[in-house]
Amino acid sequence: xxxxxxxxxxxxxxxxxxxxxxxxxxxxxxxxxxxxxxxxxxxxxxxxxxxxxxxxxxxxxxxxxxxxxxxxxxxxxxxxxxxxxxxxxxxxxxxxxxxxxxxxxxxxxxxxxxxxxxxxxxxxx
Length: 125
Fold this sequence. Notes:
By secondary structure, the chain is mainly α. It has a single domain, classed as 5'-nuclease (Rossmann fold, 3-Layer(aba) Sandwich). It has helices at residues 3-10, 17-26, 34-46, 51-62, 74-83, 87-102, 111-119, and strands at residues 30-33, 67-70. It has a two-stranded parallel sheet. α1 packs across α2, α3 (34-46) packs antiparallel against α4 (51-62) and α5 (74-83) crosses α6. The longest helix is centred in the last third of the chain and has 16 residues, at 87-102. It is globular. The relative contact order is 0.17.
């Protein structure tokens, strides 16, 4: 799963809120790479959320019965550093590495990440 899905689900006034909410509800489970939770908290900080709200939302996702938390492996980091062409693409490739390693699809609203996922044999949702 990509961070933008969590951000859109969190904020009801976002353009993609309903789509994010329904995709999360429809999914049997979600892989939550560590970087996604970190990015999510940083995004909420940038959106001026109170820390207590951000903490509660992060815990809600992390502790959901649908969530499977995934720590970074050495191979995930090596894959991301070798595949990414810039710092801005590193996080996307880290997320893709988790999906590849765990045989998971990836839920994202990022067109570039969807293209990269298809190229790497990961199903984008």
